[in-house]
Amino acid sequence: MTPMTVDLLLSQTYLHQLWQKHWPDKTGFVHNSASAFHQYESLFLSLCRDGRIYPLVARLQSMGPETYHHSLDVFLLGNVLADYLQMEMAELAAGFLLHDVGKTYISSYILQKSGTLTPEEWETVQEHPMRGYHLLRAHGLEDSIAHMALYHHERGNQTGYPFGLPAWELPAPLRLLSVVDVYSALTLPRSYRKALTPDQALYHLRKHTEELDAVYIHALLNILHTHEPDPGNPSS
Ligand SMILES: [Fe+2]
Ligand SMILES: [Fe+2]
């Protein structure tokens, strides 16, 4: 079998498009500069030089643009947000990029299905955190990275999967990832629906603070700079 390769040029183009989508104004937010973008682009390229990570990135890219765009988007948003909050963990970047690698076991038919999933299809979807965890461990990646795949669909009110854990008890990076993951999914187009605008997606997040951490929703709002929040009320 021919080993899969990463199209780096295409990946860099996607990264740049996503960056411009989030921070189109050249003069606004502190992160909104060419040098800030290149910092994250270099981080992505350095991950691709890691022999454990490269085949997994190739695997995600082979799924087509929908899953790959989302992976790159979570990588960008997650890293910018973690930097903004001075959350320093070397393994975060790989975890953001590879959190959905378990989706590579799901057929594109299921991933792109516009109608309601059958119970069996939904079960398959709910397996992706666990399958991602095992795939990351099999590639020699640390537990802290594999946990980002395993727990990113857990929710504060225990409505998530695969375990239905109270997500408030999970480490901070995992709660941050869940916020960024939902925001990215909502603001990217899917084969079965249009993308939400940033304001629509943030409105959705702020209605779900029983599931997602309001502190990170508030911080995301700040870095996206879409409108001024009430600084005294993170969930406002
Ligand atoms: Fe996921
Ligand atoms: Fe995701």
UniProtKB/TrEMBL annotation:
Coiled-coil ranges (or none): none
Pfam families documented for this protein: HD_5
CDD domains: HDc
Name of this protein: HD-GYP domain-containing protein
Domain of life: Bacteria
InterPro entries listed in its UniProt record: HD/PDEase_dom, HD_GYP_dom, HDIG_dom
Organism: Marinococcus halophilus
Domain HD-GYP: 45-236
High-level lineage: Bacteria, Bacillati, Bacillota, Bacilli, Bacillales
Alphabetized SMART domains for the sequence: HDc
